[in-house]
Structures are given as structure tokens and as C-alpha cells.
């Protein structure tokens, strides 16, 4: 939860605005004059991150480019999610935030609205070409500023049991309409089998699906935040899944439970709408089905479309408390664009890189072991990643996500109105913004 407020939204327009001007003033006030280029001595930076094995990746920097530039980075392992956001804001309030922080994309607006992360556009702007437009936009929030460098992403895809699709005479759905028809056809052929489940225990899945449909959950109108969780695109997604649950065409149980694992492992569920990181989950959840799955692009809302949503991912940001902004930004760019660094991240941390130059080489030149039957897995994944739709995050994603789990969890269990659950999400998010002191447009 944000600790300090400027009582202003982060403006999503590239036009000059009062909010952006205030942000620039705050950044100038919080940061020192900088940095490795003006100091005669070496620079020491601290990086808060939850990524496993990051210390080994940073060692490459410290022994290579960092040694040359006299910039040393020390990793401080942290918890992830809201816990880290709260810790960053608490440290920033005391003027003691680290130089660099790992931030999930949906957390950036909260950090920006609290002036906790710096605009590093002038230091890393040339890195833009390394990333898909929709990915880069997640760190600019639709402005001329750059608040972080993308690190890893979770482009969404469709996973299915290739052998069972053949057994039941099913085709891989290219559209959501075909997806629904496939679910119904499977039920007729095998009443005890489900195509998939609607799960309310991971808000990021629904957010990614809404993103693919064109939803803009947080935008601004002038100096006010505008919440669009209940917009037409999200209503379409909620209605689609709600109808399938109500008619019993798919299951309504949550993911990541022993029952869900068993359903995947035994073929009681034969597909999963997920992201590029799914092979790791399936390895544990359905070990007996290794080599029987295949990956395809996410179904589209119309045959002419080619777009996917994003489920997960994070970035590297420089804080406004850092006295070494340019040095920190230089490291952030290296970490997330350098070939050796990205391959080390893949090996040590198991991430799927946001930078396009690493998505089909090194660790990604061959398919995941679980998908050894699909030789073009990462080639196809890279093509899908390029189609990532722009996101629209706001300063209280945590509240929206919590409400989703409660409202959609009940709706899925009861097979009741998903539209009502979506409106509850909208109302709770607006109420929280107003409670925090943000101005909210109707």
C-alpha cells in the first residue's frame, strides 16, 4: 500500500502536464547531482531483488563491465510482491531506499506515484529497440519517461494435451468462440473430462486475458485517475468465462491445488491457458504427461487479430534516493540487454527474458525438457511475445487483485453472475483510490 501521496495520478499521456512536471521536480529534489561520471572514486550500488541466483549474475558485472567502470553492485535478497513494495516505500519515506529495485510491472505505478523510482529515459532510452513495444510500454506507463528496464515477461499461450486432442477429434482453437465450441464438444464425447478450469486464485490470469481483449483498467483523465475494470472488454471476458462455468462446459475449481495437479496429470483436464513459464509448473503438476503437451498461440477474439496478454514479469528500476542514478541505470540496462547477462539469468534464475535478442538463443535455442516433442517451442514463444498488448496498471493493483479473488472466487464456486463480480472489483478499486487521496474521474 502506498505510504506517501502526491495526490496526483501518474499521467498516461506523452503530453507535458502538471503531474509530470511535479514528478520531475520531485526527482530533482530526491536525487543527488549524480554519479559515476562526476565522481573521482568508485561507485557502490545496492540492488534489492527476489530473483534466485541473481548474486551469480551480478558477479559477472562486478568482474567485467563493473570493474572497468568502477561500479560495484551488491545484491540484497528480498521477498517479492506487496511485501517488497511496502519495504521500498518505507525505506523511501526515510530517504534510505537502495539504488536499484526489482519491480513487477503492475507495481510500478505505485512506486511512481510515491516518487520512489526515477525517470531514467536519458540513460537507457536506446535500450528500447531490444524490447517489443507492448513490453517497453509497461515501464514507460505511456509517457516519455522510462521508469525501469524490462527484465522478464510472461506472454500468454494455450497449452493442450496433443495426444488427447487427437483421441477426442479436437482441433486447436484459433478463436475464443472455437475454444468454447471445443469445450462443449469435449463434454459431449467425455462427460467426466474438462477442457480446462476457470480459476479465481490467480488474478494475473484474468488481468492478462482482459489485457488481450483490449481492457484498460487504469488510465487518467486530466489530473484524475479513471478506473475501467468494468469496461466493455473486461465484461466480454468475464461473460465468456462465466457462461462456460454456468453451463458446466469447463471446471470451476482453482489452480495449483492437489486436485488440479491430479486433473492435469491424469487427463481429466486436457488444456491450460497459461504463460511462457508453464513448462516449469507442468513438470511438477503433471510429471506423468511429459512430452504429451504442445503450445499454441492464445485464441483470439476475431480471426483477424494477433495479440496476447501478459501474465507476470518484472523490471529493474532506479530509485530517486540513489545518489548514482546514471551508474545504476547503466547496470540496469546491462543486466537486461547484455547477451551474457541474459543467458546467466536464464541459467541461474530460470527467467524468460524480456529482451528479444535472448529469446531464441543460448538456453532458449532448444525447447524445455518437458516439451522436447515441440522443437520450435521458443521460436514460437518469441513470435507470440512480440504481440504482447499494452497494459494499463494503476497505483492500487493489490486491492483490485484481492477483490478479484474474493468476488470471482464466490461467483465461480456458486456459478453465479461474473458481471456482478467484475463490478465489485471496480467499486472496491475506486473506493480505495479515493480513500488514499487520489482524485478519480467518473
UniProtKB/TrEMBL annotation:
Residues 1-28 form the signal peptide. It comes from Streptomyces ferrugineus. Keywords: Cell membrane, Lipoprotein, Membrane, Palmitate, Signal. Gene3D superfamilies: Periplasmic binding protein-like II (3.40.190.10). InterPro entries: Bact_solute-bd_prot1 (IPR050490), SBP (IPR006059). It holds the Pfam family SBP_bac_1. This is Extracellular solute-binding protein. It comes from the Bacteria. Transmembrane segments: none annotated.
Amino acid at each position: 500500500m502506498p505510504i506517501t501521496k502526491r495526490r496526483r495520478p501518474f499521467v498516461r499521456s506523452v503530453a507535458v502536464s502538471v503531474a509530470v512536471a511535479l514528478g520531475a521536480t520531485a526527482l530533482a529534489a530526491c536525487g543527488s547531482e549524480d554519479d559515476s561520471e562526476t565522481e573521482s572514486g568508485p561507485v557502490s550500488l545496492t540492488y534489492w531483488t527476489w530473483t534466485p541466483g541473481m548474486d551469480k549474475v551480478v558477479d559477472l558485472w562486478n568482474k567485467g563491465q563493473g570493474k572497468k567502470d568502477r561500479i560495484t553492485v551488491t545484491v540484497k535478497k528480498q521477498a517479492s510482491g506487496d511485501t517488497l513494495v511496502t519495504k521500498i516505500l518505507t525505506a523511501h519515506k526515510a530517504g534510505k531506499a537502495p539504488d536499484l529495485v526489482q519491480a513487477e510491472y503492475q507495481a510500478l505505478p505505485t512506486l511512481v506515484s510515491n516518487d520512489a523510482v526515477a525517470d531514467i529515459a536519458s540513460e537507457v532510452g536506446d535500450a528500447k529497440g531490444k524490447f517489443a513495444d507492448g513490453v517497453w510500454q509497461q515501464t514507460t506507463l505511456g509517457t516519455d519517461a522510462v521508469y525501469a528496464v524490462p527484465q522478464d515477461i510472461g506472454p500468454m499461450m494455450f497449452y493442450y494435451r496433443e495426444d488427447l486432442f487427437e483421441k477426442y477429434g479436437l482441433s486447436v482453437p484459433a478463436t475464443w468462440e472455437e475454444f468454447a465450441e471445443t469445450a462443449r464438444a469435449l463434454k459431449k464425447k467425455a462427460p467426466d473430462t474438462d477442457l480446462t478450469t476457470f480459476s479465481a486464485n490467480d488474478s494475473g490470469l484474468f488481468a492478462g486475458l482482459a489485457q488481450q481483449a483490449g481492457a484498460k483498467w487504469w488510465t487518467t483523465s486530466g489530473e484524475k485517475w479513471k478506473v475501467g475494470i468494468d469496461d466493455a472488454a473486461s465484461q466480454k471476458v468475464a461473460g465468456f468465462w462465466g457462461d462456460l462455468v454456468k453451463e458446466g462446459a469447463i471446471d470451476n475449481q482453482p489452480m495449483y491445488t492437489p486436485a488440479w495437479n491430479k486433473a492435469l496429470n491424469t487427463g481429466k483436464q486436457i488444456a491450460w491457458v497459461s504463460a511462457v513459464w508453464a513448462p516449469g509448473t507442468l513438470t511438477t503438476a503433471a510429471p506423468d504427461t511429459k512430452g504429451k503437451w504442445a503450445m499454441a498461440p492464445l485464441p483470439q477474439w476475431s480471426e483477424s487479430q494477433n495479440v496476447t496478454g501478459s501474465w507476470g514479469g518484472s523490471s529493474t528500476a532506479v530509485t530517486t534516493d540513489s545518489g548514482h542514478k546514471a551508474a545504476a541505470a547503466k547496470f540496469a540496462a546491462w543486466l537486461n540487454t547484455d547477451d551474457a547477462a541474459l543467458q546467466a539469468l536464464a541459467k541461474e534464475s530460470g527467467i524468460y527474458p524480456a529482451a528479444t535478442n535472448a529469446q531464441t538463443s543460448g538456453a532458449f535455442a532448444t525447447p524445455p525438457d518437458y516439451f522436447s516433442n515441440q522443437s520450435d517451442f521458443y521460436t514460437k514463444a518469441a513470435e507470440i511475445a512480440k504481440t504482447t498488448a499494452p497494459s494499463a496498471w494503476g497505483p492500487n493493483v493489490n486491492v483490485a487483485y484481492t477483490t478479484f479473488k474474493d468476488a470471482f472466487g464466490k461467483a465461480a464456486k456458486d456459478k453465479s453472475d461474473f458481471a456482478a463480480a467484475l463490478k465489485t472489483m471496480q467499486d472496491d478499486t475506486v473506493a480505495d483510490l479515493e480513500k488514499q487521496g487520489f482524485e478519480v474521474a467518473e
